[in-house]
Amino acid sequence: MDAVDTGTNLRIPNRNELDLWLQYRPTEGPLKGFRLKTQYANVWQQGNVRETQPEFRFIVDYTVAPPTSVRCKIEHPGGVCPTSPDEAAVLAASANRRDIVEKGDQSDAHR
Predict the structure, then answer these.
(1) Which one, of 6, 3, 61, lies nearest residue 32 by Cα?
(2) Where are the domains of the chain?
(3) Among positive and negative, which fits the CA dihedral 63, 68, 70, 71?
(4) How far is the C-alpha of 15 from the C-alpha of 43, rounded, in Å?
(5) How far apart are the two ends of the chain, measured CA to CA in Å?
(6) DSSP letter (8 states) at residue 91
(7) Are residues 19 and 27 in contact, defined by beta-carbon separation less than 8 angstroms?
(8) pLDDT tens readout for residues 59-94
(9) What is the value of pTM for the model shown?
(10) 88 in Cβ contact with 68 (< 8 Å)
């Protein structure tokens, strides 16, 4: 069964599309943050002036992570930046206890 344009009651031409993507993105080493992507698409539609509509894209980008000091300020707005995973765990536990105490104080104030 063919698709029909309800406004004109005419048959809508068939359309086929081919899409291919190839991407390279290293997760470690000196190229971490680098991405190379190629993309190819081709459209065939009955009744078109052009037989096909090919499209090729070549994309290169590189993501640069902010310095540790900037990441620390974003992740720890209180200003205390952990220097080891153990210290980070202690700070997280401390923040959780502080949240519990603050929530407890707020609930007591509403009684």
Answers:
(1) 61
(2) 4-62, 68-109
(3) positive
(4) 7
(5) 68
(6) H
(7) no
(8) 999 987 766 666 666 666 666 666 666 776 776 666
(9) 0.45
(10) no
